[in-house]
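Bumping with the actual sequence this time:
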Amino acid sequence: MTAIAQTAPSRRERGPIVSFLRRLFLGKPLGAAGAIIFAVFLVCGLFADVLAPYGYNQVDPINRLKPPSLAFPFGTDNLGRDMLSRVLYGAQLSVIIGFCGAALATVVSIVIGILSGYLGGKFDVVVQRLVDAWMSFPDLVILIVVVSVLGPGMWQVIVVLGFLYGIGGSRIIRGAVISVRENTYVYAAQSIGAATARVLIFHVLPNVMPTVIVLFTMRVGAVILVEAGLSFLGLGIPPPAPSWGGMLTGSGRTFMYLAPWLALAPGICLTLVVYGINMFGDALRDLLDPRMRGGRR
């Protein structure tokens, strides 16, 4: 019995990652499926140069508007470009824009939310009124105006979306900080004379990280979706870059009835990746937020 007890790993010995994955796959099957979908698109985006059978702008006039086949699994467009290759390179662009835009938005939300929630007082009132004024404008109007001024491009879209979602998301971080700053360990750190920066970095920020992680995950899907919408309007990534939104508004819309696969391929990929990220984000919220777990430990 002693040997068996020593060899069988306890729940504490499994490690936090194994325990988290076990809870994810057993308790949140939709979240696990979303994580798998997101991981597949992430690998496709990172290794698009290796996985794509052709270049994203490699033209073959002989094979124009070919339907899906063994040679071209997703068919070809009106210029003879392989749609599978363009979708894979589009995943690469979406991964870059999604992660960079979400990372910038998360950093902006952390800076504004932590300072506003921890300092409080008049500073919090002024900052929140500015955030309210910012959020009173429709997102689409801000995006169209700013991108029209800066011009279309990947980094312009990342910066605009990062600040747009970062300022709005700061209220979520602020709410988490307000609940954390009333804990005993924060008062203990303040009582021994710890600097404000040290309290924020070592005591407040680690305890709001579950909220930050969930916010980042949800922002990735939102940024990818909005970038596709901007590209559809002609304000996102300029051609010939293979943006999913650009493919939908270009040949996908022009040849919708003659070659429906031109719109189906990027449309289905966009739907799957956003659905997967949102399902994974919901599962993360339930698993990382102790208020969502009820009495379980």
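The tokens above came from a reply further down the thread. The domain at 27-58+73-288 is CATH 1.10.3720.10 (MetI-like fold).
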